[in-house]
């Protein structure tokens, strides 16, 4: 598909859709096949090594009693797993709601709203924390990176940090609660100190402050009490009921998140006065005489991460069914992308090698052309790796979804190979100068 747009506003609208991500990334991938990227060489013959590595991880972690790979036991990629890192936390929280004598019985819709409150706030706080930050629970267990951020968020949520009524209704997120958020409170709750530094504390705080404005600006989605969980009511109005099953198209949820949370993201590139979000120019796509935005590549990584994370509680608790999931892409972030570099699918050209620090790893801003190329290649390579795994395992995309591959193979594989190759930090082959608002 090669859409043409007669107005800038049409281009901007397109770049904020789900299909645009895969379509624009495919253009970058096509250039890679021709050796026309600015920062990377592409070696498709190396994909088989990554596929085999990922498949072995899946066999290790999801084996049935008869020794076969148990596809049905693989959960989808979502924030739920990180919140339960090391031990279950979400289920005890839900059990607490059933037992709480302060309130009347909590129905399934309210339980789901609370989980959406928690999951959304947790994803917004999930950008890379750096190689040195950790979070210690009261039992002495220590967590870092994405799991550490998730565990910290559970405790912040449990303490009512995001609620306008922290004593009576601690387990919710609303604009009134977010109005009390500041950098010092976030840093204290995250155990940040000179000895335990975190990357992007200011950026994370800004996201939460901006979330308050977004919730208040969209009462038709988030209700009069400006609460993320109220998007369930809006989606219900957009859904169709077939028998006892409520069906929702993923584009409805995507649109709610992209439009409803638009004020959350810092201003970056815009077209026709429309802020685009996680969308960046790619110099490899630039040609003479092209229309404004034709060289832009959309990623919307955090929106994708939120979408995957929110679908799960709605399907598990409310038994809703989401259609159009095939439009969802793999997440273009440094674990999935690191897998490609560490297995030699992508090798840095001299223009990128020259940017390496003393540890041999480049440290770049999200806007850097190398990062844009890397992320675009990641989206398409995740599709190709998923297909490779399915081929070896003898299943189709219904038997093994992309979300399951992300959860059980590529993200985990990217982390494990990074630990093996860079044991001192466990960091990716390209470090991102994160401000807490993209990765």
Structural write-up:
With 439 residues, the protein is mainly alpha-helical. 48% of the residues lie in helices and 8% in strands. It is built from 18 helices and 13 strands. It has helices at residues 8-15, 18-33, 47-61, 79-83, 90-99, 108-124, 145-158, 175-178, 183-189, 201-217, 219-222, 231-238, 250-260, 301-317, 334-342, 350-353, 369-393, 402-421; strands at residues 40-42, 134-136, 142-144, 240-242, 245-249, 270-271, 274-275, 279-281, 296-298, 321-323, 346-348, 363-364, 431-432. The strands form 6 sheets. A 3-stranded mixed sheet has the order 4-5-10. Strands 1-11 form a two-stranded antiparallel ribbon. The chain has a two-stranded antiparallel ribbon with strand order 2-3. β2 (134-136) and β3 (142-144) form a beta hairpin. α6 (108-124) packs across α7 (145-158) and α15 packs across α18 (402-421). The protein starts with 7 loop residues before the first helix and ends in a 7-residue tail after the last strand. 45% of the residues are buried. The model has no long low-confidence stretch (mean pLDDT 94).
Feature tags:
mainly alpha, 439 residues
Summary, kept brief:
The protein has 439 residues and is mainly alpha-helical. It has helices spanning 8-15, 18-33, 47-61, 79-83, 90-99, 108-124, 145-158, 175-178, 183-189, 201-217, 219-222, 231-238, 250-260, 301-317, 334-342, 350-353, 369-393, 402-421; strands at 40-42, 134-136, 142-144, 240-242, 245-249, 270-271, 274-275, 279-281, 296-298, 321-323, 346-348, 363-364, 431-432.
